[in-house]
Amino acid sequence: MRKSLLLSLLIVIATIITGCHSVDDNRIPYSEVHLTFHTVGDWNIYGVKGAAADHRSYIFTRTERIPADFPYTALDRTGYGGLLLVTDVIGELVAYDLACPYEARPNIRVTVPNGQLKAECPVCGSTYDIFTNYGKPSSGPAADKGYSLTRYSVVSGGATEYRVITR
What we know:
The protein is an alpha+beta fold. 18% of the residues lie in helices and 26% in strands. It has helices at residues 2-19, 40-46, 141-145; strands spanning 33-37, 55-60, 65-66, 77-78, 83-87, 93-97, 119-120, 127-129, 136-139, 151-156, 163-166.
C-alpha cells in the first residue's frame, strides 16, 4: 500500500513538473495560405531554384506586395506574416510563415541575412534553422520557449497549377 501511494505521489509530481514546461504550438493565429505558381515559367521566374539554401519571401496584403511583380490573384493568401519558401539541404521545398512565433505579430517577420543559413527575428533576436531542421529555433527567446516557425505544405499542382503552397 505504501509503495503504491508513493508511486502515485511521484506520478503526480512528475506530471506537475512537466506540465510547467508545456509549449504553445499555436503561437501564430490561423490565416489562410494559398499561393499558386500556375506554370513552370512562373516558377522559374518567381520560385526558388532548387539549390540548397535558396529562399524567397512572399507577402500579399492590402499595403504590401512582395515580390512586386509576382502575378498574385484575388484568391492568393500568404498567411499571417507572409511566406518564406526555401530549398532545404537535400533540395526539398519547405514553406514557413514569416511571422516570428515569439513576437506573434504579422509585421514582425524573420529575415535570412545574406550568406546565413538561418532565419532571424530583427526584434527578439531569435534564430531559426530553416534549411536543415525545419524551422526549429536555435537561439534566443524562441529557443528558450520552444517556438518553431509555422510550416505550410508545398505540393505539385494539377493540370492548371505547377506548385501550390497551402495550409
